[in-house]
Amino acid sequence: MGKKVSIHRLKTGVPGLDNLLGGGLPEFSFNLIGGAPGSGKTTLAHQIMFSLASPTSRALYFTVLGEPALKMLRYQQQFPFFDINKVNKSIRFVNLSVDLLEGNLERVLSRVAEEVKDYEPSLVFIDSFRSVVQLAKQKERGESELQRFIQQLVMKMTNWQATTFLIGEYLTSESEVSPVSSVADGILRLSQNLHRNSMVRRMQVVKMRGQAQVPGLHTFRISNEGIHVFPRAIIKEDTGRESEIKVAINKNRVSMGVPGLDEMLGGGLPVGYSLLVVGPSGSGKTILATEFLAEGVRKGEPGVIAAFEKSPSQLLNIQLFKLIKTGQVGVIDTRSLDLSIDEILYELIKMINKMKAKRVVIDSLSGFELALAPEFSEDFRSSLYRLIAELTNMGITILMTSELEDRYTDLRFSPFGSAFLADAIIVQRYIEIEGQFKRVLSVVKVRGSMHSKAIRLFDITDEGIIIGETLSGYAGIMSGRPTASDSNHNNPVIGVGDGNEQK
User: What is the distance between the terminal CA atoms of the chain, rounded to a whole angstrom?
Assistant: First the structure.
């Protein structure tokens, strides 16, 4: 047996797609790009072609559509990947619509062979191949003739050593039974769904021979720059080494920037932990997040904030606005709707790498869910789990805020049932003491670490958050159940209880 063949992988030039494919497209492979009309098939094909085409690696693009190539190119020229200098030099367009109308598949195959022999391309595209399939179905022996046509095309392309792409408007059921699917080395399926007035585009690598692709559905966006794919974050299996690293990291702590809070957390927040700060509106969640980021700047640990409720120009927190304005804290402005978790994660990682950030703030989970397209918000908990796991595996320390309605009748730590995702939780509440509303906070948990069980008063001043005394005389304040000490006060103490208090 001869030496093991090493397959060269071609870089597609489409952001995120190479990761999805497992490193790129196998050279000399036979690929199918399928999807519904308007899903982005032609744009994807052009983006790949213009990226790979060169004087030494020329491309031949066959169109079997009823419209001339110039009409199609008129729209493709709007994208920056389109290079007019490559047209007729490194890229040639050939219209097969006349040959197809004659109804002879042999003639179509012969024309393809002539053009390939004359141009000697490294890349061959046929768009839309579904037109060929429909022509074959209209004939008496259509299925067998189509099968023969495809087999001959595959053999010729292999002999010509060309990487081939068939673009077609295939529905899911059609692509599964199509003879093209059985001979294709790679299959990319594009889809677009309108969900409660939100457009969501997704891509799936159904098949890619000889390499491990990323499974599942992955979102992509068509912008003025072209197609950008956002591979779905996959939680990596813990081999044991990761756990050893995390244990070592957790010996180190980051300061919260609030005097007294580090002691309540048992010495600060462990590096690589996710902290959930919950509380009602106006309780000081964003102020605490600002102190966390500002302390990072003082310690030489840059931070990033994903602002889901306010854009940078709308931030009422002057200190946070200054940190962003001076470039000491990076900001992800997520005011545009129809986002996916994976797109947000991509933007976060991009900003983290740019800033060399060590701290991330997500403000808030409530706004985060609203920023997602409805299709993704339905699976919010599992998506959030993947995002947190990806960032904490990078050694990033995360602070998330979440608004929690203060009902005074129950004790909860998250409106989404997602408190289990956090390594640490701080709860902020309002209470009434002697006719005044006061703020209190408590550390509910810090995984693997001792922490304070105290309920402490705190105030927000021009200097930031000031933590006050422990409510040692108010044992029932967070449970809402009156105590002996409570009955000694003329004014009631209102906390959070089970709804059975004396009215």
Answer: 88
Q: Would you give the distance in Å from CA 6 to the centre of its chain?
A: 32
Decide if pLDDT at 256 tops 90: yes
The span from the CA of 120 to the CA of 113, in Å, is: 10
Which of helix, strand or coil describes residue 78? coil
Residue-by-residue DSSP string for 104-118: -HHHHHHHHHHHHHH
Q: Is 259 helix (H, G, I), strand (E, B) or coil?
A: coil
Q: What is the pLDDT of residues 117-129, one digit of tens each?
A: 999 999 999 987 7
**From the centroid of its chain, how far is CA 140?**
48
Instruction: Give percent above pLDDT 70 in the chain.
Output: 77
Cβ 467 vs Cβ 456: under 8 Å: yes
Q: Residue 269 corresponds to which tokens in the numbers above?
A: 């927040």
The DSSP bridge partners found for residue 306 are 332, 362
What is the length of the chain? Answer: 503
Name the burial class of residue 357, with classes exposed (0-12), middle (13-18) and buried (19+) by CB atoms within 10 angstroms of its CB. buried
Neighbours of 315 (CB within 10 A): 22
Q: What are phi and psi of 167, to 5 degrees?
A: -105, 130
CA dist., res. 341 & res. 27, Å (int): 32
pLDDT for 483: 39
311: phi then psi, degrees, rounded to nearest 5:
-80, 165
Cα separation, 208 vs 185, whole angstroms: 6
For residue 225, count other CB atoms closer than 10 A to its CB. 12
Round to whole Å and give the CA distance between 384 and 297: 26
State pLDDT tens for residues 95-154: 888 877 776 778 888 899 999 999 999 999 998 777 776 666 666 555 677 778 888 888
Within 10 angstroms of residue 21's Cβ, the number of other Cβ atoms is: 26
Contact 79, 43 (CB under 8 A): yes
Predicted pLDDT at 68:
67
pLDDT at residue 2, rounded to an integer: 63
* Rounded-to-integer distance, Cα 94 and Cα 89, Å: 14
Measure the CA–CA gap between 18 and 222, rounded to whole angstroms. Answer: 17
Mean pLDDT across the stretch 305-331?
79
How many Å apart are CA 476 and CA 467, to the nearest integer?
Answer: 20
User: Which tens digit of pLDDT belongs to each residue from 189-242?
Assistant: 999 887 666 678 999 999 999 998 998 889 999 999 999 999 987 766 554 444
Query: What Cα–Cα distance (Å) separates residue 132 from each residue in 117, 275, 445?
Result: 21, 57, 63
Contacts 24+ apart (CB under 8 A), 192-195: 192/35, 192/36, 192/38, 192/39, 192/40, 193/375, 195/373, 195/374, 195/375
